[in-house]
């Protein structure tokens, strides 16, 4: 048994399952293949089965082909599968990370096979089998093959070495404390298990804002510790990445420049890369935030982001490392009096002209929207717009703008919309999910990354139901075609067991929650309206006259940002024509993004038939009622869920209710005073 930590095991918590207890196949396991990752798979399998059946399965060596009543965990090259089981094409199709799970009682002698080309495939297959067992799926003629759609499925930590987490709402870092690595790594092991079980294969452990101490992570002082974490990850098929400070050659190397075209700078990074790979032979590479929010970058030297990233890429290339270069580049010191600037334009304006100039081991990491992880914003027009440059999508699981894990806000529905968004880059059917998985352009590396919502809280995510975002992200990164319903149902059963009342109440809670949160916060896609700095709670004009470029332009006549080509910022022109036309015209612009693209009078009538002002009033009243319904549903689960988790969610829902009322009253009052238009339903607005 592995030394698991005492933290909540989340969706890996197993409870006794009587229907499995009698299954003979679960009493013995034969393993074909040998590696650390296979050992992890075996440990997970024995642990899970023991927890579910009460019996520790025996490990048997080399049983003959006819032997029955066992699980065969097998590398395909070791076992040589009988032809009738899988044709060659299907096996090839499993690739490096896919697997097959089969059980044919009649000709397999009652054995259950988990088969893969690689040890990582076996690990993923094992977790899938455990899911099948835990959710009580039919085992009789099991015939599953699966492989991930996205080559890279990453988590980005924004952890600082002092133990704090930028935009963290679930406690302190699980990696760092007092400017060192934590000593007890049981929690990190559990974390690696959770991540591998949802298919994550790359993790950047430190904040993209790389401060002085974290700059040192790539020095001999800390590389042994980094290597230790990389070792824990490796056993779970995960490669470790580091966020690096672009100015490291100056801060660590004593150079007087970080100019990417100065050969001393390139040489410094080459030496540095060599050093890192001495410690971590499978090091994933660098995540870089450059020229953004006061971080250093190539702009200082009048160089482009292609120059900057290629220089790093060259250093990592001999070792197979990647440079993940973030596109969150904009002017955070802009003059708000100058209405011709529009922050939404920035990523596209900076990067699109550089298409084709990046080295094959550079990937551009693009936030889902052109602004910054708002509850609702348009999809970034940069996605799909660079045929000659690897791209990956960036989501934010940590709920910076979506209630900071005090409010329930299930983000899977939002992510589904974004993944399914048709960019029209290559005509109809060029959805974001196809672009970033490499299905449209011949990308060398690509996938999805997300800013994680995990800290050292007992339940990892602060709000226990926020675990569903973590789980859902991993599942979607593995397969963006999974439905919201599938993911939600699976997560609930794995996390809380098979009580049907629990599923019946939590499913609609999760399904409604994004919409509920959106209703009582900023309306119709306009975003922001939060307190500056920490981004929690309502403040309509918090950012209105600020240099950050985030405005709603509300006055007594109307509200919204005119981003049209006709007489606005022209942002709309960055989309492919089908989307540009849809957003440009008031008639076809979808209601939920109306104020993201247009400035309209309060009396403007939406497709819903309501005026903008009445929509604002109605949704804000509805939003609070929505939270009351969430509480009503959750209250029915008392006694059906353990006390700790029940209280954890109950308390947060009540905080949410209080704060939803505050949002409602601040927003409604603001717009009532600005517009002077009373609520048609005559409700109290202050
Ligand atoms: C903003 C966050 C800030 C991050 C930045 C980023 O407020 O803390 O550093 O994004 O993504 O949303 O770099």
Overall description:
This protein has 686 residues and is α/β, with parallel strands linked by helices. It is 36% helix and 11% strand. The protein is built from 22 helices and 18 strands. Strands 7-10-11-12-13-14-15-16 form an eight-stranded parallel barrel. It has a six-stranded mixed β-sheet with strand order 2-1-3-5-4-6. Strands 8-9 form a two-stranded antiparallel ribbon. Helix 2 links the parallel strand 1 (28-32) and strand 2 (58-60). The chain is globular and about 80 Å long. The relative contact order is 0.08. The protein binds beta-D-glucopyranuronic acid. Beta-D-glucopyranuronic acid binds at residues 166-167, 208-209, 289, 293, 328, 372-373, 400.
Question: What's the layout of helices and strands?
Answer:
Layout (H helix, E strand, L loop, with lengths): L17 H4 L6 E5 L3 H18 L4 E3 L10 E5 H4 L8 H6 L5 E5 L1 H4 L3 E5 L2 H16 L8 E4 L5 E5 L19 E2 L2 E2 L4 H12 L4 E3 L7 H4 L7 H12 L4 E5 L4 H4 L11 H17 L5 E4 L16 H12 L5 E5 L19 H6 L10 E6 L23 E6 L15 H9 L11 H5 L10 E5 L15 H12 L5 H13 L3 H21 L37 E2 L17 H8 L9 H4 L2 E2 L10 H24 L7 H33 L11
Parallel strand pairs: 1-2, 1-3, 3-5, 7-10, 7-16, 10-11, 11-12, 12-13, 13-14, 14-15, 15-16
Antiparallel strand pairs: 4-5, 4-6, 8-9, 17-18
The structure holds beta-D-glucopyranuronic acid.
Quick structural overview:
The chain has 686 residues and is an alpha/beta fold.
Strand content: 5-15%
- Largest sheet: number of strands, sense, barrel closure: 8 strands, parallel, barrel
Oligomer: single chain
The ligands found in this model are: beta-D-glucopyranuronic acid
Could you report the average pLDDT, rounded to the nearest whole number? Answer: 95
Regions with pLDDT < 50 over 5+ consecutive residues? none
Number of helices: 22
Strand pairing plus helix content: what structural class?
alpha/beta
Strand order of the largest sheet: 7-10-11-12-13-14-15-16
Overall helicity: 25-40%
Count of distinct strands: 18
Euclidean distance between termini CA atoms: 61 Å
Radius of gyration: 26 Å
Family: Belongs to the glycosyl hydrolase 67 family.
Subunit structure: Homodimer.
EC number: 3.2.1.131
Protein name: Xylan alpha-1,2-glucuronidase
């Amino acid at each position: 048994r592995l030394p698991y930590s005492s933290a909540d095991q989340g969706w890996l918590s197993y409870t006794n399952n009587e229907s499995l207890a009698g299954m003979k196949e679960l009493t013995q396991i034969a393993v074909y293949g040998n590696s650390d990752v296979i050992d992890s798979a075996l440990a997970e399998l024995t642990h899970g089965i023991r927890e579910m059946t009460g019996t520790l399965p025996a490990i048997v060596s080399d049983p003959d082909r006819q032997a029955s009543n066992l699980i065969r965990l097998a590398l395909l090259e070791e076992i040589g599968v009988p032809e009738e089981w899988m044709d060659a094409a299907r096996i090839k199709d499993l690739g490096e990370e896919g697997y097959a799970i089969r059980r044919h009682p009649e000709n397999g002698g009652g054995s259950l096979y988990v088969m893969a080309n690689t040890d990582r495939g076996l690990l993923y297959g094992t977790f899938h089998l455990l899911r099948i067992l835990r959710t009580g799926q039919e085992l009789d003629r099991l015939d599953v093959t699966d492989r991930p759609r996205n080559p890279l499925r990453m988590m980005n930590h924004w952890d600082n070495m002092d133990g704090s987490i930028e935009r963290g709402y679930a406690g302190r870092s699980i990696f760092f404390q007092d400017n060192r690595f934590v000593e007890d790594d049981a929690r990190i092991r559990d974390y690696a298990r959770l991540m591998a079980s949802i298919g994550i294969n790359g993790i950047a452990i430190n904040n993209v804002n790389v401060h002085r101490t974290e700059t040192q992570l790539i020095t001999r002082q800390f590389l042994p510790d980094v290597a230790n974490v990389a070792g824990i990850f490796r056993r779970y098929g995960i490669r470790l990445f580091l966020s690096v400070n672009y100015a490291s050659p100056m801060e660590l190397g004593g150079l007087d420049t970080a100019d990417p075209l100065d050969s001393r700078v390139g040489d410094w990074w080459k030496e540095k890369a060599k050093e890192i790979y001495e410690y971590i032979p499978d090091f994933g590479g660098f995540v870089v935030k450059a020229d953004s929010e006061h971080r250093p970058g190539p702009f200082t030297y009048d160089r482009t982001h292609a120059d900057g990233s290629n220089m790093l890429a060259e250093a990592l290339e001999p070792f197979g490392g990647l440079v993940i270069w973030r596109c969150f580049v904009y002017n955070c010191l802009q003059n708000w009096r100058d209405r011709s600037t529009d922050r939404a334009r920035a990523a596209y304006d900076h990067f699109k002209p550089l298409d084709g100039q990046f080295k094959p081991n550079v990937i551009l990491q693009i936030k889902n929207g052109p602004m910054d992880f708002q509850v609702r914003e348009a999809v970034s027009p940069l996605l799909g717009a660079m045929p000659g440059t690897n791209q990956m999508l960036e989501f934010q699981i940590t709920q910076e703008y979506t209630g900071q894990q005090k409010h329930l806000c299930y983000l899977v529905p939002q992510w589904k919309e974004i993944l399914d968004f048709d960019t029209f880059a290559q005509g109809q059917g060029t959805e974001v999910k196809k672009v970033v998985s490499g299905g449209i352009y011949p990308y060398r590396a690509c996938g999805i990354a997300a800013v994680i919502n995990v800290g050292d809280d007992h339940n990892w995510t602060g709000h226990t139901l926020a675990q569903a975002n973590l789980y859902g992200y991993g599942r979607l990164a593995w397969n963006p075609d999974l439905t919201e319903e599938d993911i939600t149902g699976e997560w609930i059963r794995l996390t809380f067991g098979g009580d049907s009342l629990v599923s019946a109440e939590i499913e609609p809670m999760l399904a409604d929650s994004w919409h509920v949160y959106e209703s009582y916060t900023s309306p119709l896609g306009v975003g922001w309206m939060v307190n500056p700095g920490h981004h929690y709670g309502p403040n309509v004009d918090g950012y209105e006259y600020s240099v950050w470029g985030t405005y709603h332009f509300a006055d007594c006549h109307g509200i919204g940002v005119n981003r049209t080509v006709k007489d606005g910022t022209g942002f709309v022109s960055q989309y492919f024509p089908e989307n540009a036309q849809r957003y440009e015209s008031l008639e076809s612009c979808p209601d939920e993004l109306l104020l993201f693209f247009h400035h309209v009078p309060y009396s403007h009538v939406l497709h819903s038939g309501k005026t903008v002002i009445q929509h604002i009033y109605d949704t804000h009243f509805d939003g609070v009622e929505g939270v009351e319904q969430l509480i009503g549903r959750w209250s029915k689960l008392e006694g059906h869920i353990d006390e700790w988790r029940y209280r954890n969610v109950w308390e947060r829902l009540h905080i949410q209710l209080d704060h939803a009322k505050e949002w409602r009253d601040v927003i409604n009052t603001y717009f009532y005073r600005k517009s002077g238009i009373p609520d048609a339903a005559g409700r109290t607005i202050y």
